[in-house]
Design brief:
The chain is mostly helical and about 500 residues long. Helices cover about 85% and strands about 0% of the residues.
Length: about 500
């Protein structure tokens, strides 16, 4: 019965979150695709490089959203809503303070960009303005993500979605016409940042005014520093993630400027995959936070979450690659490299992100159990392996070498999580071999034939024709079917089917 309850909660929240993040993920996918088609190639390459510099803000979240969600879910499980509010408000204040420090660092990076990247022709003042404007939008997103973690801990993510999604959609809707009409990167950056900032500000003000205890909830010294103490090891993880994911565009800009545009697209696609997966699977962290004192249920939720997660990761990887194949004829601004090399860069980058995401429920388990404090070495090894591989291969093969380096680093990271971190922490009663089969082997079994099919499609079929469209859509549908049958356990399939049936019945009744 406990398993059925856990499956029902996870299935219900996963489906709800899938609907919630659809618009946000669409924006993340469409923004680079539309800009590369509307900006001049030289302007888009500069935009991509500056966006990559400002993007480190999103990687350096210092674990605050995950910490807030975990601590809020624990407080809710104990019936203390005032403590939940206090922890959320404390996290928001720390995120805001970190954002101010990041903004100063971005100013230095912007003015130094022409010296760091010889191919950049723009002046330091213009580059700095673009980086600062994008940085403000990304900092607002970071603060908004920390605030939305409060509602995720309450299992009320739809409240945050109603507030944040319109701003993210407006960001795209305003930035694109600005790019078409002006071809001015400073104005495009402002159009991108202002709606994001307004959406996050509204959500934060709503929490301060409406949460139990309000502003007074975070007055005690203990609550002010609880979130920071809990997120301390996660801060180290976020620095490692900067080396793993954020440094790629900088390395490409240094060694192979011609590949900056396509690599930025690949990175945007990978970021969209990470965002979708995080939103869909985040209910696992709340469930684990509530079950952290019940080892049997904790292990059960971890294994169940891993199986659900792999299905979404597999579908996400293939779906994003399909979007690239269908949009490739429109990406005239990304033709700095041959078509086959461009496809390989996108495929390796997205696959590396997907591989790393297969073990994210296990990482959630480490955080929920507080065991993340003992796991600083594996992320460090992964970061060093990724950085070494991307620099070495990037100097030899350019953008493709950096993408291959990301894939090598992801393999090292997943291996360390399954065969070192799991054994060292002993937080779940699941053998590494079982989790390896669920998290890695099952998705590879599904992905392998689909990947081969998509590669052959790139090689033998002219893209843009209706046959290509049909073949890509068939690949996506086949992936969905295989993910449903191979990755999801039978109990979850039944729960999801029942939930969708009820939703459909309500919709038709109206």
């Amino acid at each position: 019965m406990a398993e059925a309850t856990a499956a029902g909660v996870l299935a219900r929240n996963s489906v709800s979150n899938l609907a919630r993040v659809a618009s946000t993920s669409l924006v993340a996918l469409l923004m680079p695709v539309v800009l590369v088609a509307t900006l001049r190639p030289d302007l888009y390459a500069l935009w991509a490089l500056m966006f990559g510099l400002a993007g480190f803000v999103l990687y350096l979240d210092f674990g605050l959203p995950a910490s807030v969600q975990t601590l809020v879910s624990r407080a809710v499980a104990g019936g203390d809503l005032a403590a939940a509010s206090a922890r959320a408000i404390s996290g928001i204040r720390w995120a805001s303070l970190i954002g101010v420090v990041m903004l100063a660092a971005l100013a230095v990076a912007g003015f130094s960009a022409p010296e760091l990247f010889p191919a950049v022709r723009a002046g330091g003042g213009e580059v700095a303005l673009v980086v600062l404007a994008i940085g403000v939008g990304n900092i607002a997103t970071f603060v908004g993500n920390t605030a939305s973690a409060y509602f995720a801990g309450l299992q009320r993510s739809e409240i945050a979605a109603v507030t944040l999604v319109p701003g993210r959609v407006a960001s795209l809707a305003i930035a694109v016409p600005t790019a078409v009409l002006t071809q001015q990167l400073v104005l495009v950056a402002l159009a991108y940042a202002i709606p994001l900032t307004l959406g996050s500000a509204i959500l934060v003000v709503g929490i301060f005014r409406g949460a139990p205890g309000g502003r007074r909830a975070s007055l005690t010294r203990s609550e002010r520093f609880l979130v920071l103490r809990f997120s301390g090891p996660l801060a180290a993880w976020s620095i490692y993630m900067l080396c793993i994911s954020g440094a790629g565009i900088v390395i490409v800009g240094r060694f192979d400027f011609r590949a900056v545009a396509i690599f930025s697209l690949a990175s945007a696609f990978a970021a969209a995959l990470v965002g979708v997966q995080g939103a869909i699977v985040s209910p696992i962290l709340s469930e684990l936070g509530r079950a952290h004192e019940d080892r049997a249920r904790f292990s059960e939720v971890t294994l169940l979450g891993t199986r659900i997660n792999t299905a979404f990761v597999v579908l996400g990887v293939v779906g994003i690659e399909a979007v690239y194949l269908l949009a490739a004829p429109l990406l005239t601004g990304a033709r700095g490299v041959p078509a086959l090399e461009a496809s390989a860069i996108v495929g390796c980058t997205v696959l590396a992100a997907g591989l790393r995401l297969t073990v994210s429920p296990l990482t959630y388990a480490f955080v929920a159990a507080g065991a993340h404090r003992r796991l600083l070495l594996p992320p460090l090894v992964e970061a060093m392996a990724t950085l070494t591989a991307t620099i070495a291969l990037g100097s030899l093969l350019g953008g493709l070498g950096v993408a291959l380096g990301l894939l090598i680093g992801a393999t090292v990271g997943v291996s360390g999580t399954l065969f070192w971190s799991l054994v060292k922490t002993n937080v779940v009663d699941v053998r590494p071999a079982v989790l390896t089969r669920s998290a890695v082997l099952r998705p590879l079994l599904v992905l392998a034939p689909i990947q081969l099919f998509l590669v052959s499609l790139t090689l033998i079929t002219p893209r843009g024709e209706w046959t290509t469209v049909g073949a890509v859509l068939a690949a996506v549908l086949l992936t969905a079917l295989l993910a449903w049958c191979v990755c999801l356990p039978r109990l979850v399939r039944l729960q999801l089917a029942e939930h969708l049936r009820r939703r459909a019945a309500v919709a038709f009744a109206r």
